[in-house]
What does this fold into?
Amino acid sequence: MMKLIAMVCLICILHIGIAQPKEKDALVDSTFLTGNIQHPADLIQGLVPGLLVAKQNTAEFDPYDLRLRGTNTFSGRTNPLILVNGLVVPSWDFIDPNEIGKIRILSGSETSRFGMQGGSGVIEITTKQASENFQISYHGFAAVDTKIYKQKVLDAPSYRSLGGSDLGSTTVWLEETTRPAFSHVNNLSFGQRISSFNYRVGLNYRNVQGIQKETDYDRVNGLVNLKWTGSELLQVEYTGAVNNQTSNPGFTEVSRFAIAANPTMPIFFESGDYYQPQAFDYFNPSAIIGLSDKKTTQTNHLNLVRLTSNIGLAQLQLYASNSHQEQSLDETYDDRLRFRGGTLYQNDYSINHQQLGGRFEYDLQSGDWSISPALQLDNHIYKFENKTVQTFITGSQSQINTATEKGQVVLLGGAVSADFNFKDQWHVSIGDRLESSSALGDEAGFTHFPWLNSRLDISNFLGFGGTNYFTIGHGKTGMTPYQQGWSAERIGDFGQEQFANPNLRSEVVKNTDIGLDWRSADGRLGVGALWYWKIASDMIWEQIYDNGEEFALVHANAAKLANRGLELTIDYSQEIGDVKWQSQLVTTTFSSEWKSLSGDLNTNLDSTRYGLVFNAGFASPSVISFYENQPFGTITAIQTNGIDTQGQSWIMVDQNGDGSIYFEDLQVVGQALPKVTLGWYNSFHYQKLTASFLVSGAFGHSLVNETAVMYQPNLSWSYSNFLESYDEIAPISDRMVVDHFVQKASFVRISYFQLAYNLSTKPDGLLSQAQIYFAGNNLLTFTKYSGDNPDYKLSKRDYGLDASRTAGVDPKLPGFDSANQLYSYRSFVLGLKLSLF
It folds into this structure.
């Protein structure tokens, strides 16, 4: 607390100052992107400084990876915390994109208010509210997606001419396993305000096909918003949502097997059964689609209630929420199939989150000053259950393996804060949150998360322009594990499995922000620049620990990672005759550095390596390495000096001169995360016509092209196909992960285009709004990367049984352009918006 008082005094002396984010920092419905929008992140991708968005497997139903100002945890929740109408929900899945009215991103010191859950940033979602008068609205669109691929393989004649095994057919496996994907989305909503009561109901239906054949999902979503204001003494708000999704997510390996498949291999035997080649890791991709079944179902329920009472200058809020999610995954593989034939796999997962709390605030005013002290208390309870059943059937014999995990994590916390305002020119917010987590060690206790933000109007000081602000803020936030038992001892059938660590603490993230917002006197030009610096420390790692008597796992706090950069936003508006032009450029720089890689219980992560490329022998050294004073996401590989054509092998550089090639010879050859990102959005309005586009880009990152590692080399012993680019390198005798396959992947993309026309409506007519629009997404990419998709990869994700097919991969590590992934796609959309009354 003394530190907080000292910081307040310093700000008073300097008379400089970030208050809580203003409404202008939010993106609202009218500024969202349109087109093939299947996820809330699609609404804002490329429009928010400091936000990285990636999809590992590029399917509509695959989870998104989001990072705000870099990575801050490797064992906690790497995606931002999600709030719906002010209360926490476990994921995006509870709200349909069509029901979102506003999105606000919190990425700096203001996240301290969320304590042990704010370390990866916060995304606040506000749902659409009722209109004053009764209104029925419809929004629907139809979309077609076409695959994007560059890494083409040999066709049958070329394969035969190079001496490939001729099996007598001609099959284009890529075309046999993919298709143009057609989707349609429909949203209907209605609501109104009736005296002191207002309501809004939204209904959504999504039918979405995937690029891979037999992949799709159906999703039904319903949302209700109710608000009743009896008087100043009582206001009641309720949000309820329910949705159900059934999907066929497909098999990411099919894409790789379609590349590997012999183009002369038939799809079927003469008997009509699927052709089954007899070779290691080599399968008929059409047989996998035809003889396998993978289905998922997901159901989400959400209930939020808030009671607000205003008594004079005081306000009291009481709130409660309950969100429940159930997911199931069922996989069945026909026993005629070589690919996992005779296997049944079922996974059932559920999470329940409960939040209960209250906030008391008192407004004091005296002349030009106002002070609003507040007290908040709340708790969160997360309950998890995960059950897996795997059955292996061989003839009349079967083996069943079952595993069940249950857990509960309880967070208990409170905060005291005060907001100061002077003449609406100087704002200061100061506070401290105290919080504990049952997932941490017994000795961890409560952790303080203080913050101090200030914002000062410096228009008079500058003497030019319109309204200008200088901002500064500092705060501490953190991240709790969402797993039970990490700090406890665990003894199994064969002895000690995990040591206890009563000192296991919350991860810590410290944020510092300094910014300047300038706007011209006519309001047409605005420039915002913000420098950020954040340090993540006490990160939680699972390590092998030797207590002097035996080895076992232990979870310990270790390492310190610094992320820093500059966020720049420039917006401009201009009217040229009847044309209104609005433009916004958003760009962010990213840099990181491991300040320390040591910690508790003798943990030392310096020079540790992670991430293996699948099925590539030593040819598969780790490709992500942690080094002190180096960035996170450092890609390492063996350096080469060409190929020994006689020995058909890479000429690898023996860096340490010991006469052998091993991990010690790995060299830094790339960086997985971009150094700069940009988004340039423009819209033009002419009478009833609107045209808009978004150009985005990322620069400075590299990717490990796993498809090229496996299928570019012309292997004399191989029975599989390979890429058309095989002749770029001399024939070699094995697959090797070397610097040749770590490729720069900077790109510029036309991400979005829309042309919309507002139809004529009569002032007193039934139809109050009518708009038809055409849009395109992911239209054209400019890059030197040889792979299919140059997007930065924030993790390598495994799915269901696929997890057992990829060795030693950490899902939170960046930089892998996996061979096991569905194709990216471009979308073309025709949409209609209507409002009645």
